[in-house]
Amino acid sequence: MNPPQQAQPPTFSAQEFRAALGMFATGVTIVTARTTAGGLIGLTANSFNSVSLSPPLVLWSLSRAAASMTVFSAGSHYAINVLAADQKALAERFATRGADRWSGVGFDEGAGGAPLLHGAAATFECFNRSRYEEGDHIIFVGEVERCAHRAGALPLLFHGGRYYTELPL
User: Fold this and answer.
1) Backbone φ, ψ for residue 136 (5° rounding)
2) Tens digit of pLDDT for each residue in 120-146?
3) Domains and CATH numbers, the chain
4) What does the alpha-carbon distance between residue 163 and residue 154 come to, in Å, rounded to a whole number?
């Protein structure tokens, strides 16, 4: 018997799929970059994952419909800022359309000018290595040029549509 050549159509709704995905607890990041004119860009993302230790690679994904798609697609660098538990308000601000995302936000200049947010649990300064078009998102693979972390920082987690922080078992 030959294996199928493509997946069967889904037997669930988009809402059911989203709810099931929400059961996977993730960390929360803000991905940042600079426009070609030097403007600041940033958005909250929980689609972050490690790919490889050698070379050091990470990935994240962005909706094809995102207003910032052209900046992230064309830019040479971006930073992934892993948020700490006390940065929930920042995560919400950078997830809100039309919000003044950068007002009062402290940051340092990273590779290619990508902002490194003060107080982040970890930062990854990435060269924009490759992109893969899949479904309604683009998967970005970044080659990490520099990284740092704040020892002892509690993580900001997202699960089931709510924010949490760790609870030791």
Assistant:
1) -95, 15
2) 999 999 999 999 999 999 999 999 999
3) 27-157 (2.30.110.10)
4) 13
95: left (phi over 0), alpha (psi -120 to 50) or beta: alpha
Amino acid 14: pLDDT: 94
Q: How high is the pLDDT of residue 4?
A: 85
pLDDT at 105: 97
Candidates 58, 59, 70, 65; CA nearest to 33 is: 70
Beta strands in the chain (DSSP E): 26-27, 29-34, 40-45, 48-52, 57-63, 77-82, 107-109, 115-117, 122-134, 137-149, 157-159, 162-164
Task: Copy the structure tokens of residue 157.
Answer: 């987690």
Average pLDDT score, the chain:
95
Q: Which residues of the chain have pLDDT under 70?
A: none
Q: How far apart are the first and last CA of the chain?
A: 46
Give 111's DSSP letter. G
Q: In a 10 Å sphere around its CB, with 0-12 CB exposed, 13-18 middle and 19+ buried, how is residue 115 labelled?
A: buried
